[in-house]
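[job 0417] fold request received: Oxidoreductase
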Amino acid sequence: MSKPFTCDVVVVGAGMVGAACTLYAARAGLDVALVDRGPVAGGTTGAGEGNLLVSDKEPGPELDLALLSGRLWVDLAEATELASAIEYEAKGGVVVAATPEGLTALETFAAGQRAAGVAAVPVAADRLHDLEPQLAPGLAGAVHYPQDAQVMPALAAAHLVRASGARLLTGRTVTEVLRTADGSARGVRTDRGEIHAPAVVNAAGTWGSAVAALAGVSLPVLPRRGFVLVTEPLPRLVRHKVYAADYVADVASDSAALQTSPVVEGTAAGPILIGASRERVGFDRSFSLPALRELAAGATRLFPFLSGVRALRTYLGFRPYMPDHLPAIGPDPRVPGLFHACGHEGAGIGLATGTGHLLAQILTGRTPDLDLAPFRPDRFPQEAV
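[job 0417] inference complete; emitting structure tokens
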């Protein structure tokens, strides 16, 4: 067992959100240690597509966080040491509607987003192929979202951790949140020793509920499984992130059953990524042929050329689902010194920068740029831990 050491903040979870919390806390002058039972980006982050989206968010707290995060991602992408390392690509998104009724609903949704500060540009049916020449014929129209972007998530998380200069402690499982006599957090115990700090940040993503329980509080984070199909490398035939309008409804759904809606995007490396599926089946990592068939069928409806393209592999991940679809961000009033930054579902890559920035402001006693009340960790009925 290693000897205990002391720092200002210990962040639990080296995924994208934990990496961003570490970076912004370190930039704020705090001595930070980042601990994870596995490698950097070894959980949900490593199984993500790297989407930085505003297009799928209705006006409200999550969209406000997405807009803040988007500005911060641009700042990071423009930093000399991170410019190409994180594979940031401001390619924009295109949300398509198959029917006139679907287009009316999409344009109404987009109008509300524009009022909240989103760039949402209507695209008539006869102009769709100017944006995406390979799209299927007969679609009713679309909305173009130039603010949507993408990073390579595992690379981005690793480079943010490196840029932070913080101590990285991988291969260490947190077994307890240490408490003082008055109940305040004072660090964590791991299977390889203790880390003492007056602030503990739960950035454990899909496993955030388990980390909260180590501190004696409940947080209703549940795993929501999703698959991604990866094609053979191709020339750039899909220029934007392209998805069907019903994807937004699937994201907002409370259903535990399998849901799929076509999401197709090219990557800088050449392969096309095809999603998106959602189902609540616990941490079941079983291969699901029905889910993958639905993904392939939906993608070829949008882009017929894909019917002749080989899928080389598939992977799955578990999105950290919360009952109201908002993450837990900020201090936990039940345990002074405990902070949460988890439960972002499928939006954690995009929302990570804003989350880390806001948490760093809280940790250093500043007023956060956004109202954190909607993200309060104790907003749910408490279960016995």
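[job 0417] notes: The radius of gyration is 21 Å. The first helix runs from residue 16 to 27.
[job 0417] exit 0
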